[in-house]
Amino acid sequence: MRLARFLSQILGREITILQALPVEKNNYHIKSKRIYLDILVQFTDKSLANIEMQCIGSLFPNTRSAIYSSSLITNQYNSLIAKYIEATGEPNESVTDDVIDYSKIHKVYTIVLMEHSIKEFHYFSDTYIHRSHQVFDSGLPMDMLQEYVYIALDIFGSLIKNPQNELEA
Q1: pTM for the whole thing?
Q2: Of 162, 55, 155, 157, which Cα lies nearest the Cα of 113?
Q3: Could you tell me which of 148, 110, 109 has the C-alpha nearest to residue 130?
Q4: Residue 30 pLDDT grade (very low, low, confident, very high; cuts 50, 70, 90)
Q5: Is there a contact between 32 and 92 (Cβ–Cβ < 8 Å)?
Q6: How far apart are CA 150 and CA 127, in angstroms?
Q7: Which of 29, 51, 28 is nearest to 40 (CA)?
Q8: How would you list the strands of the sheet with 15-20, edge to edge?
């Protein structure tokens, strides 16, 4: 319950924790990432969030965030295909773009909590939460599927000595 409330505060929306995600089987990879938590959550509108907590920020490059985010979108797409095949009995080859309802693929959020953030975060030493979403330089108002939140816990610790709100607490 505490974790769900914390994540709701970060995202500004109520969430439900769905499941813990399996950690990679490669022992070297696990040791290099120092994974503490990897979970999948869902909002009331069915959009998903992948939350990973790890110890060493320098070993979590922006490309890994994009891969996790893309994986969540791909999982939703594959689920739609599986539901179509199950409902129609059609073979996989019959699944085309015109039979998939892309409006059922929901936005995904990748949240990274870093105990030790990489140097780029320290250029913004007065901010510990960084939120990202895609925008077009033309101003085109198209809501894209992927958003990211990075939380630099080391910077948080140096900034916040007396919590002033629920998120900080």
Answers
A1: 0.79
A2: 55
A3: 148
A4: very low
A5: no
A6: 11
A7: 51
A8: 15-20, 35-43, 48-56, 108-116, 146-152, 129-133
